[in-house]
Amino acid sequence: MKNPSSSLPPLFKGIALFTPGGDLIYCIDPSKKNRWHLNLCAVLQEWLGLIEPPHFLVPCYTATVDRWLDPYTGQVQTSAIASASVLRYQALLNAIFEMDDLTWAVAPWSEELCHPMVLATYRQQFPQLWENHELIVRLESTADEGRVHPPNLSPKLRFTLSEQTPTQGYVLRLFVSGHTGATERTLKTLHQLLEESLGYPYTLKVIDVSKHPEQAEQAQVSATPTLVKMWPLPVRRIVGNLEDQDKILNLLGCLKS
Fold this sequence. Notes:
This protein is of the alpha/beta class. The protein is 23% helix and 26% strand. The chain is built from 7 helices and 11 strands. It has helices spanning 36-48, 90-96, 116-120, 155-158, 181-197, 213-218, 245-252, and strands at residues 12-18, 24-29, 62-69, 76-82, 105-106, 136-141, 144-149, 170-176, 202-208, 226-231, 236-239. The N and C termini lie far apart (51 Å). The model is unreliable at 1-6 and 142-167 (pLDDT under 50).
C-alpha cells in the first residue's frame, strides 16, 4: 500500500553506496537509465577529497532496490539486494527508500573481490573511506550534483546524521607547508573569519603538503598557503595571501554587497 505522504515516485530504482567507515551516498532514479554507480563514486571522490573515484567499492558496498510494475498482475513489485557487508544497514536502507520492514537479499556478486585482504590493499590509498564522517547524502541528479538532501529518517535513525553534514554548509581544505608561525597566524585568522561570517556549518581540513604531497598533486596545489572550497560546487581556490577577507568571503559566495 502506497504511503500518501511518500516523497518517492511510485516506480523507481534506488542505488546506495556505502564506505567501509559507514558513510552513505545514494540516489533515486525514476527513469532507471542513468549509470548511477559511476556518478556516486565521482561525487564521493569530490566530497572526501579522494585521489580517484573509488570504483572498487561498487561490488562490495552497494545496495539496490527496484520498484516496478508487473505487466501480468498490474501490481507494484519490489526487489532489493545488498552486498553482504552492508546488510547490517537494512533499517537505514528501508528508511531512505521508504520500504517499511523490507528484508534485503544478499547480492550474488563475487566474494573474491570483497575479501577483507583485498579491500585492505586500498586502505592506504583511500584512508578517508575508512573514517566515519557521519554523512548520509542523497544525490538529486547527474546534471545537478550540487543538490543533496538529508533523508526523512525516523527519530531512531536520525542520530546518524551529523550537524556537519554539508547539505547547507562548506567543506574547505587549507594546504600549508610545515607547522610554522605563519601557518598558525593563517589558521587563527581564517577560523575567526569563518566563525564570524558563515551562517552554515563548515569543515576545515588542514593538509601539510610536506607530509602529503600526493594530496597536493591531486588537488593541483603548487603553492602554499592555498585555500580550496571543495563544497558546495564548483570547486574554487585562493592561492597565497589569505589576509584579504573580502576575497575569502567572495570565494565562499557569502560576500555582502
